[in-house]
Records
---
Amino acid sequence: MKLYDLELSGNCYKARLFAALAGIKLELVPVDFMAGEHKQAPVIDLNPLGELPVLSDGEVTIRDSQAILVYLASKYADESWYPKAPAEQAEVVQWLSTAANEIQNGPGAARLVDKFGFDLHKESALAVSAKILPILEAQLTAHEWLALGRPTIADCAVMPYVGLSHEGGVSLESYPHIRAWIDRIKALPGFISMPAL
């Protein structure tokens, strides 16, 4: 099973992190983003959007980090990470949606501007960050984990760009419960890190 990967990508890290926590073996295929390899074969053939990560598992190809988390958890991990019961599954999925929307367009986008020079609207990214981080802080004030009272793929989806928010000029100083949650994730057996985390 291959993961087409970029070390500095928080989205790629989501898949690497979950696989490490769940004991799932991945063969990492580094993609030279700066050289445009994500827009060339074989990556562009696997994902016409030319984005990373891409998971290749035999005949199955999955793009999008949230989809990859769902696939890996459903096929290769125990049900605690991604349950089958509809209400519990929905509790996890709502956080996957938050990761793909508010987190990606808030702290994630701010990081793209500051660290990689992307032509995005930094003020909009900061405004989204200022809206979602208090909501995340409130959730983590009342609960140790984002969903179901235990680590799930929701935590793997949301944490990377929140943990890397300082690279986009977004401070977590005012959010002690978010910082404590990141520390809890880092303390999980099998945890792996990435640069700047």
Note: The CA atoms of residues 24 and 76 lie 7 Å apart.
---
Amino acid sequence: MGGLAAGVPWREAWYDALYGRAGFYRSTSGPAGHFTTATHGPLGPVLAGALLQLAADEGCGRIVDVGCGRGELLTQLRTLDRDIALTGVDVVERPTVLSSDVDWLVSPGGEALPDAFAGFDATLVVAHEWLDVVPCTIAEADDTGRLREVLVDPATGGESLGDEVTDDEMRWVRSHWDTVAPGDRVEVGTSRDSAWSDLLGRVRSGVAVAVDYGHRGGERPAGGTLTAYREGTVVDPVPDGSCDLTAHVAMDSLDHDELVDQRTALRGLGVQGAPPPRQLAADDPAAYLRALSHASAAASLTARGGFGDFWWALKRVG
């Protein structure tokens, strides 16, 4: 990639592209206008049902959804349970379509949480695809094996190498993503670990779960995972505010009690993808169609090569 050149550190350009005044996540359409997550469409009710079961298992009377978009998951949760307390956290103002009994906190964006996010008791905090959009340092090993920060031109996406990473970042790399081969890229997880620790410190009692696509030690991708999406299509990562920018999370570096793939997590919460018995179609066609839709969504949420490969990092607090 050559020697020193002008540019902006990817972490800074990434933050501004997503959370700046004209950032991607502040657009009118919101994330749902560009990509689908497990909180959208027919998958949402099944995921919501599993989270309600987790909250019940853990004795939690409130669910907080961090990085909740326009409240899609919160809407599904409220539909299924009229009594549980709900709070959404995102960078935009409260959506007008959201039920009036759902609390809302406006976040600064990235790893920063609002001051009012604090003191939760008996609460399940869900960070669903939040940490993958917490900007992190992108680094690359140069021809001599030194790990240097990658700089980017926000207008074109053109890259160059900057200074060596900081001592703290290098310690994280040696512990979690050691690399020496020239050309290898690392998405340094210090900002994600810090964001997660900050979140945990704001909960007095309950459980927090980070749900994201990620990887573990021994499975780190040598070329990194920085990716961009625009209108449902994968595009070149350019931090100009026109596309989503995301990178997989080093899930095992997060403070956790349990780390399992989504298939295991959801099946443990009663989500099964088996189709309903055919006889139900004759006895109650409407019930059969509802059960078939539920089974199809459950199969999608646990599918290999798709949502089922997500990771759940769960941490109990207090």
Note: The radius of gyration is 20 Å.
---
Amino acid sequence: MYVIDPPKQSSLAVQGTSDRFPVRRVFCVGRNYEAHVLEMGNDMRDPPFFFTKPADATLDTPCTVPYPPLTEDFHFEAELVIAIGKGGANIAEADVMDHIWGASVGIDFTRRDLQAQAKKMGRPWDWSKAFDNSAPIAPILPIADVASVETGRIWLAVNGEMKQEADLAQMIWSVREHTATLSRAVTLAPGDIIMTGTPAGVGAVVPGDVLTGGVDGIAEFEVTVGPRA
């Protein structure tokens, strides 16, 4: 018997069906495209690192995301999303694809001013990354139907104006590499989500803006920024 009602299982839509993909954890790869590393003033030689979002930060698209509290600098970051279907630790790069259930695309929303404060003070990024509704994700495409998670255009537009456009091949650390690296630090489990980093062109949005984007051949999203929460 639980002493309170257990939380609802977070989940994401699966393309073409009424099925749902249960979300266990959300891992995010930081600084994984060269041009974005440079625009943020960081060093490309750094190894991949990760931060997390709670499972219930995810939501289906299309959707409306309220402008979050505590920020005046609310940024978008379009990212390829990987859904883990088979768990494991110390996964070899050659075996990574056997652990992936599907792929999609989403937005790693960021309260950039809070992130800057955290960096300056040497504090964790949680308040800037792990807030409510910070990970809208398009319906997941089963991996058998995905042509590639290593090449393909990734893009994001705000009110029809292109802001981010790159190719997955420009990742510093490929899906195989960063998933294998992550599995050496934690044991991956079915339901884990990996957001794989964003290309250059990140920027701020305000209430009323409409964000569209996708990864060609995998998925597309539409997200409207709502009034302040």
Note: The first helix runs from residue 34 to 39.
